[in-house]
């Protein structure tokens, strides 16, 4: 039972047994402590050195010979009080430097990261976008500029479904010459309660790229490449611009 309490004070099981043996033996040798604690002499040496460092065992000379002797049990209280003071000192130090550490962490977190993918690697880029789990996703798609990829196949549908599962809200703006979308987008717009799609006229808003905006990520799809920017400030700026365009956009109500 006493051994368990000593473990809670930070001693190892063998250190506790060696300390208790020394308490009972008084002035003694390493061999006597090893026998009392039922451990070998080499192991006893190691734990005795640790206990000397902790201040629980000391060496004293008696009749011209050096002996080991345990400190009084009261020394445990002093050691614990010293440890408490050290813990408080470290906590105060941590509280002092925490604002600076948080500042450094924030700077590191907000460093901009840019990844480029060829269009042939679109599946890799899509996997990343699905994995980011953003609360919202805003998209701007120019049908006139990107006609070559304005065809929805089964992979596109599967990607769209996974992307919608990864977010709480999706808003899309389609830029086109006529206020129409394909059947797949029309179905999403009418049947999914977190999907909202609007239209902007091509003649006025000829944005040449597709944009996908999330909390900390902006994706740009151009003719032959995909560029992913990981930066909260850029993403926030693009979100604000999107919301301005969203106010100008009109609801979609036709099929192409």
Automatic annotation (TrEMBL):
Protein name: Transcription regulator TrmB N-terminal domain-containing protein
Transcription regulator TrmB N-terminal domain boundaries: 8-67
Pfam families: TrmB
Species: Candidatus Falkowbacteria bacterium RIFOXYC2_FULL_36_12
């Amino acid at each position: 039972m006493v051994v368990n309490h000593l473990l809670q004070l930070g001693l190892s099981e063998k250190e506790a047994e060696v300390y208790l043996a020394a308490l009972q033996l008084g002035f003694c040798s390493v061999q006597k402590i090893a026998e009392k604690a039922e451990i070998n002499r080499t192991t006893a040496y190691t734990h005795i050195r640790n206990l000397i460092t902790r201040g629980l065992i000391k060496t004293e000379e008696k009749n011209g010979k050096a002996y080991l002797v345990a400190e009084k049990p009261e020394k445990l209280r002093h050691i614990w009080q010293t440890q408490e003071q050290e813990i408080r000192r470290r906590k105060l130090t941590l509280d002092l430097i925490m604002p600076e550490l948080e500042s450094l962490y924030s700077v590191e977190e907000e460093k901009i990261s840019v990844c480029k993918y060829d269009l042939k690697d679109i599946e890799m880029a899509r996997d990343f976008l699905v994995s980011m789990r953003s609360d919202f996703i805003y998209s701007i798609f120019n049908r006139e500029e990107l006609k070559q990829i304005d065809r929805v196949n089964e992979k596109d549908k599967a990607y769209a479904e996974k992307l919608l599962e990864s977010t709480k809200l999706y808003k899309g703006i389609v830029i086109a010459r006529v206020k129409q979308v394909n059947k797949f987008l029309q179905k999403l717009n009418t049947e999914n309660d977190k999907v909202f799609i609007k239209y902007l006229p091509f003649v006025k808003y000829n944005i040449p790229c597709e944009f996908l905006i999330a909390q900390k990520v902006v994706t740009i799809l151009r003719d032959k490449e995909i560029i992913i920017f990981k930066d909260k400030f850029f993403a926030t700026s693009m979100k604000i611009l999107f919301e301005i365009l969203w106010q100008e956009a009109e609801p979609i109500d036709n099929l192409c």
